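Hey,
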Amino acid sequence: MSNEEIIPFRIDVPQAQIDDLRARLGAARLPAPLPGDGWDTGVPVAYLRELVEHWGTSYDWRQAEQELNKHPQFTTEIDGQRIHFLHVRSAEADAMPLLLTHGWPGSIVEFLDVIGPLTDPRSHGGDARDAFHVVIPSLPGFGFSGPVTEAGWDTARIARAWAELMRRLGYERYGVQGGDIGASVSPEVGRAAPENVVGVHVNGGPGVMPPLPLADDELASLTDVERDRVRRIGAFMQEEFGYIAIQGTRPQTLAYGLVDSPVGQLAWIMDKFREWTHPRHELPDTILDRDRILTNVSLYWFTGTAGSAAYVGYAQASGWGAKPANSGVPTGAIVFAHDVGIRRYAEQENTITHWVEVDRGGHFAAMEEPELLLTDVREFFRTLR
């Protein structure tokens, strides 16, 4: 018989690990800058040196730990894997349960700014009727849900684990929301438990990407905005796909550098925070709070999960482009300026009932544009309660 026990959890990183991190940062050996020292060859040395200095001398992990520990956290074992999650219940009696799933290179830290407004809208200028009970798991292999001990943790298996988690928590009707890997997992939860999931909401767009290269007549039938998204998908495959190729094929080899060097871990993550925040030409820590980014990086560092997060995130057994069945669950999307979701492709495998496009914001929606995301989540689920 499987163990369904739910165990209270509190983050408490030993001081020796914090001291070790600071010592490593203080003794860091940075590479010489490549010609131009620009972002096109990776994170510039001049930029990272300053961030390393801040992480090692000014950043306060204990303060971040305290903020995370304000929220009730738990662990449970599902399908042989330890799953860590935040579970914040609303004081509103008729609140709707909502399962939030992060992505890579994110974590539960992504959602810190929206927990309060979601669970207690009354105190945040919102309507009490929009209240949610919030469940935020760490993906298998990520943070305190790491490392993974088995292969096969694709989005469908994660979704089945999430449905089981919600069952254990006693939730029979609930919504799901996510971005990045979370935007792939969330529709799968709808497929795993269509009788329980009342609605699926994603930022970025659910479903497969268009089959590139597109035929001329299909390209011509798209709007200018959609054609730009196709162009950016093509550019991504040319210029940025390398990290997926490495993480999806050699995650263990990569992990030696990232788990042993905080500077390596920081650079690997900051590269994506720069590329995927909006506008791209702005430094990521002028768009997002610098210490909040470092809390996210610190979570990867202290748990040593660079390898298992890479392994779970991109070594997906189902592969890219496989089209699953439509669950029939109402599905909504908010597509930010950086995003590349295209409705006609998303509709091939999802029942799209809500599609909103905005001209700002990037990949890390809950961190970059919490108000926009909150407004859209509330609006979408209002009709499904």
